[in-house]
From TrEMBL:
Function recorded in the entry: Probable zinc metalloprotease.
Cofactor: Zn(2+)
Keyword Zinc set for record: yes
GO biological process: proteolysis
Name of this chain's protein: Archaemetzincin-1 isoform X2
Region annotation (Disordered) ranges: 329-393
Species the sequence originates in: Panthera pardus (Leopard)
InterPro entries given in the database record: Archaemetzincin, MetalloPept_cat_dom_sf, Pept_M54_archaemetzincn
């Protein structure tokens, strides 16, 4: 049997990670110190601690991974802060709207929407999430084409985005369309998980490839992040006009990921290249499966700057969501997508020997310029490239596993940490004191 080639680390050093989080700008360093308690700063410092236990280094599995296929300058907090428009949240604009498209409002479809609403209200603590009535794709007048790998039609994203822009409620901070139909952003792409319209706070994402008939665990799905993406439960049937899709625990987790990923873009966050993070791009289903369900410390600081929550409050709310038992009722007779694990195969040609040194940004920085603007569909699509290898990892319930990770985060944030203890902790690790000694 062909063996899966080991993944390669893609890592920045502690200095770069600390500067990405805290910033080298004195004003932003002071903002960091005032925005977070000592316990929160010690928790966020996991970003640049080489012995980190809560957040993981990025891994490259194939030459077609998003990190290599879409090289660009990483977005640190300073870059994010400089590009952020005037604060968009206000008493009149504090709602996230979810717009179902061709998604049944019956018991199954309604349960899925409620599940996503509860997830997003916890993820974006401080905002209210509302579900709009479902609209028919036919009424939007968007283009379509036959799918390349199924018997269904794919919807063009541009027509949907134009509709969302023109119908956006006046009190909306942003609007995200949700559909069970497959999407494509242009003729050259085989599909996309989602796309957003920069500057207009509208986007759309698809759950079509997270159903039981298409979803298969990807390569090393359990090794790339502290929150493994896998499933072991029965499936939930959800209907839209003319089709029924079944979602396993794994599929529901992916629906949550793509929804929160796109909403983060709509709130101003760019893609992440620092650590394992929900804001990584995905050019294949396998990459989407490997993404964790939450933000890395650098992106967490960005979201906290926009919404102003306490870290522990957000993690407790997310933990309550994982334990609430609000997962849509399942069809006990439906087979699980992960009952059969596909065999391992050779990868598709990572240009690095398995025994070589980990890849670093310095080894590829010469291949791109920091200047290009990201494409609207950046981070959530798939151009027509060779198929990624099938996966070979163990299966667990992704939401339950995420809850265990959240418990560890909550315990870390509940610790009583003084400024003196924080300074002493970094005195014991002098290689981490790479910026101002007053900011950790």
């Amino acid at each position: 049997m062909l063996q899966c080639r080991p993944a390669q680390e893609f890592s920045f050093g502690p200095r770069a990670l600390k500067e990405a989080l805290v910033s080298s700008d004195p004003a932003l360093r002071r903002l960091y110190a005032s925005a977070f308690t000592p316990a929160e700063r010690l928790f966020l410092a996991e970003a640049y601690n080489p012995q980190r236990t809560l957040f993981c280094t990025l891994l490259i599995h194939t030459a077609f991974d998003w990190l290599l296929s879409r090289p660009e300058a990483p977005e640190d907090f300073q870059t994010f802060h400089a590009s952020l428009p005037p604060r968009r949240q206000s008493p009149a604009r504090k709602h996230i709207y979810l717009q179902p498209i061709d998604l049944s409002e019956g018991p199954a479809g309604g349960a899925l929407l409620e599940y996503l609403r509860d997830c997003t209200e916890a993820f974006f603590l401080g905002l209210q999430v509302r579900c709009l009535p479902s609209v028919a794709a036919a009424s939007i007048h968007c283009s379509s084409r036959p799918s390349q790998d199924s018997d269904r039609l794919q919807l063009h994203t541009d027509g949907i985005l134009s509709f969302l822009k023109s119908s956006k409620p006046g009190d909306a901070l942003c609007v995200l369309g949700l559909t069970l139909s497959d999407l494509y952003p242009c003729e050259a792409w085989s599909f996309t998980f989602g796309k957003f319209l920069p500057g207009h706070e509208v986007g759309v994402c698809s759950f079509a490839r997270f159903s039981g008939e298409l979803l298969q665990p990807g390569p090393g799905a359990s090794e790339a992040a502290p929150v493994q993406a896998a499933a072991d439960g029965p499936e939930t049937p959800v209907q839209d006009p003319g089709q029924t899709l079944c979602f396993s625990a794994l599929g529901l987790a992916q629906c949550c990921k793509v929804t929160c990923h796109e909403l983060c873009h709509l709130l101003g966050l760019g893609s992440c290249r620092w650590l394992g993070c929900i804001m990584q791009g995905a050019l294949s289903l396998e990459e989407a499966l490997r993404r964790p369900l939450d933000l890395c410390p650098i992106c967490l600081r960005k979201l906290q700057h926009v919404l102003g929550f306490k870290l522990i409050d957000r993690y407790k709310r997310l933990y309550a969501w994982t334990r609430a038992g609000t997962r849509p009722d399942v069809d006990a007779g439906a087979p699980s997508a992960s009952d059969e694990t596909p065999p391992c195969s050779a990868d598709s040609g990572l240009s690095c020997d398995s025994g070589s040194e980990p890849l670093t940004p310095d080894t590829w920085s010469h291949t791109f310029s920091a200047g290009p603007e990201p494409e609207p569909e950046e981070g959530l699509g798939s151009p027509a490239v060779p198929d990624s290898p099938p996966g070979c990892g163990p299966a667990v319930d992704a939401i339950r596993e995420h809850g265990r990770w959240l418990e560890r985060c909550i315990r870390a944030l509940e610790r009583e940490v003084t400024e003196e203890e924080l300074a002493q902790a970094f005195t014991l690790c002098p290689h981490l004191c790479l910026l101002s000694p007053l900011v950790f």
